[in-house]
Each structure stands twice: as structure tokens, then as C-alpha cells.
Amino acid sequence: METLQTPLNQAQLELLKLFSRVKSEEELNEIRTIIGQYYANKAIAEANRLWDERGYTQQTMNDWMNEPT
After folding, report:
1. Helix (H), strand (E) at residue 14
2. How many CB atoms lie within 10 A of CB 31?
3. What is the pLDDT of residue 26?
4. H-helix or E-strand containing 64?
């Protein structure tokens, strides 16, 4: 067995503690969903920030959709 070359960071340690308490496949799937939703929300927030920062409008989106590929 290989030894760990990079120590785990605090987030990884917290996740290990969390997953050690999982008792069923259903709980595991719920946690996966929650983590997925968390990152999806962060991506949406960043996209919204960029949209506002760059002054995009519905017309911008329409123009992109009609660009030749």
C-alpha cells in the first residue's frame, strides 16, 4: 500500500468525518445531491455575476444563439 504523499486539507478531513457517519446508500445519495446543488448554485452565482459585470442582455443571448457554427 502506498503512503499518502500530500496531507489532507481541512475540507477533506471534514468530509471524511461526514462520510464515516453515512449509514445507507440513500444517505450517501442525499449528500451527493446536496454537494452537487451547492456547486451548481456557486456556478449560477458566478455566471450571474459575469452576466451583470459584462452588461449582457437577452439580446446578447439571442445574438449568440443565431451565430453561425
Report:
1. helix 10-20
2. 15
3. 97
4. helix 58-65
Provide the pLDDT confidence category of residue 1 given band limits of 50, 70 and 90: low
Letter for the amino acid at 57?
A: T
Angle between the 25-54 and 10-20 helix axes, to the nearest 10 degrees? 140
Contact (CB, 8 A) for 30 and 23: no
Delimit the domains of the chain by residue range.
Answer: 25-52
DSSP strand E in the chain: where? none
Cell digits of residue 55: 452588461
Q: What is the mean pLDDT of the chain?
A: 94
Which cell numbers in the block locate residue 25? 446508500
**The C-alpha cell that represents 57 in the structure block:** 442582455
State yes or no: pLDDT of 18 exceeds 80: yes
